[in-house]
Amino acid sequence: MTMEYKFIDDAEIKLNISKYLGKELDKAGFSRVDIQKTPMITRISVHVLNPGRVIGRAGKSINELTEAIKNKFNVSNPQISVIEVDNKMLEPLLVAKDLAFKLERSMNPRKIVEYTLKNIMSNGAMGAEIVLSGKLAAKGARSRVIRKSIGYIPKAGAVTDLVNTGHATAYPKYGAIGVYVRIVPPGTIFPDKVNKKSVENNIILSTETSEPEIKSEASEQAKENKEEESKVETENPESEGAVTGKVEDSDSAQ
């Protein structure tokens, strides 16, 4: 197998594992999964709302899940760790599922989108976007798209990897509605964003540190100049004495 096909195969396995866990752990409040493959083990970190349902009594459920992943996807030595979600409003998949649930209860799409965005930002997110696409009106109406965002949301480039995404589908009476949620987690540092305060502080610190260096260099230069002057003063009397001695000798000879 070439290197290109190996990368494609690994990505496909990770996607299939994520879909499988999403179905199996839906009642436990599945949010996302992180898969890290090492030469010794395959580490699978599952983020859920209710870790007790994943682990089970005496670890029975998680052992069965580990064996199922090992046999179904041919994963060597999988190790599953369960992580509890701290804040569900910062998890895009959980937010999308909650919106889908409300849409199936015939709630006003625009109102629930605005309320959800405000709730996400109040929980510390740097930016959020919600897109609803499908039969949003009564029977016989055309499909529409509602797109609303708040805060900073990058749309292109490598910085989009720092944005968490989630998707769910609602099935109300009049047709399916796709729900897409994108959230920028709190504390995310973007390389294309510069903080003015940090730059000003760095400039002040650099000027403060440079002044003592200039003073120390000036003092060292002054010391060197004094040493050179003292050397010249000590050397001059010897040279003058030697000259006068020669002149006196010549006079006495005459």
TrEMBL record:
InterPro entries hit by this protein: KH_dom, KH_dom-like_a/b, KH_dom_type_2, KH_sf_prok-type, Ribosomal_S3_C_sf, Ribosomal_uS3, Ribosomal_uS3_C, Ribosomal_uS3_euk/arc
Family annotation (SMART domains): KH
Keyword vocabulary terms for this entry: Ribonucleoprotein, Ribosomal protein, RNA-binding, rRNA-binding
KH type-2 domain mapped to chain residues: 17-86
CDD domains membership: KH-II_30S_S3_arch
Molecular function GO terms recorded: rRNA binding; structural constituent of ribosome
GO biological process: translation
The keyword Ribonucleoprotein appears for this protein: yes
Bias (Basic and acidic residues) ranges: 212-234
GO annotation, cellular component aspect: cytosolic small ribosomal subunit
Stretch list, region Disordered: 205-254
Domain of life: Archaea
PANTHER family associated with the record: 30S/40S RIBOSOMAL PROTEIN S3, SMALL RIBOSOMAL SUBUNIT PROTEIN US3
UniProt record similarity statement: Belongs to the universal ribosomal protein uS3 family.
Cross-referenced NCBIfam families: PRK04191.1, uS3_euk_arch
The protein's name: 30S ribosomal protein S3
